[in-house]
Amino acid sequence: MPDWFKIYHRLPYPMKVMAASTRGRYLKRWRYGPATEAMVEEYLSREQWSAEQWRVWQEERMAYVLHRAATRVPYYREQWGQRRANGDNSSPELLENWPLLSKEILRRQPRAFLADDCDLEAMYFERTGGTTGTQQYLWLSRETLQAWFALFEARSRRWYGVSRHDRWAILGGQLVAPVDRDKPPFWVWNIAMNQLYLSVFHLSAKNTPAYLKAIESHRIVYLLGYPSALYRLAREILDQKLSPPPLKVVISNAETLLDYQREAIVAAFQCPLRDAYGLAEIAAAGSECEMGRMHIWPEAGHIEILADMSDEVLPAGQVGRLVATGLLNADMPLIRYQTGDRAAVTDETCACGRTLPMLQEIEGRVEDVIVTRDGRYIGRLDGVFKADPHVREGQIIQEDWDTLRVLYVPAEGYTARDGETIVQRLHDRVGSDMNVVLEAVDEVPRMPNGKFRAILSRLDRSSAGSNR
Ligand SMILES: [Zn+2]
Predict the structure, then answer these.
(1) What's the whole-model pTM score?
(2) Does domain 3-282 have CATH number 3.90.550.10?
(3) CATH superfamily ID and name for 370-457
(4) Cα(315) to centroid(ligand 1), Å
(5) If residue 392 lies in a helix (H) or strand (E), which one and from where to where?
(6) How many angstroms does the Cα of residue 130 sit away from the middle of ligand 1?
(7) 110: buried, middle or exposed (CB in 10 Å: 19+, 13-18, 0-12)?
(8) Percent of the chain scored above 70 by pLDDT?
(9) Strand 391-400 vs strand 285-288: parallel, antiparallel, or unpaired?
(10) Which of 129, 192, 253, 333 is buried deepest, with most CB atoms within 10 A?
């Protein structure tokens, strides 16, 4: 735990509010400025652009970013220099001539991705919220950061009839209360951002009424959080037959939203649930419109979907690895960056009338897939827990080529029949030769940052037994 939190936890609540609000004022100054409203209007007006207008815009921006990367960014400049020295005459003007970039390479030398005309002192520094070993270091200019937050304001809040001036609550993984705390407050009010920060670590059956009371007494208009945390709250509201305060919208982000989570959250809060997709490295982002379709934000980045086992670009409708070229942060350009997410794009148009491209689905993380012996990649299995089995939530762990272990939290009324249903549904999806081991738990373990993983793979994909 950082020292700052140790001091923070000893403060009386009003002092915590002061501390959180000081931090909030600092963030607000970085994120929003006099140009914000005009940017929001500009982004909204682009949503009616023709395909031709988008093509021209993207070509121009892509050309600028690629040129800047090849000439001003040490990592890429060196890479192209070496290619030239080896007699490679391919043009950096074409995206397909650029190799894929892994998270590992970026993590090892983040500063090499920063354009050489940047003034680090004047930039916003961000350590992305990954677990230890998966963190990334990023630098953004004030202009870029404000464009990013204007995009969120336009394509998320505005679409749902709320704004950054509304009072909102966030269910997040910051330790705003000590983990062993057993009575409220499990939150802190941030005056500068009109934001109630609710701890995900203290959500429980017993604490749920206190969370709802806090949301009500702070007159919260909308709620944002991890799907798994929103689900936990929703599940308790339904099971304890509590009535939640009225909200305009619930926004989920940062994890794959599962079908059973969506159903429970909508049923509990009785308001629309809109999912957001956004990479901390800001190279790709999207948000759900009122038709429930996930629109991509072209200004954030250009998206390609590549096959799981080769670098072949897949057509619309097929799920593969999401590779993004960031178009917003030209000071730290990430070209063909392997986001670690799996998704499919679609070429359908949306009934909402917006011309923004769409993702057909987001399957989850590349490392969180079940791989079968016959070479299938299965990224979503939440259907296994849907509707009838009396299970609150579950996690499916692939231990090896032949074994799946299912951790599940039984709900009231759970019987052996429910277990059989789960095994049967898994066999239908992964093949009946896979051993399925069921294990009841009180709680599915979260990651250190409070995030939930529906699928975990411990499979060594290079191991013997593979037919590849
Ligand atoms: Zn739409």
Answers:
(1) 0.91
(2) no
(3) ANL, C-terminal domain (3.30.300.30)
(4) 21
(5) strand 391-400
(6) 30
(7) middle
(8) 97
(9) unpaired
(10) 333
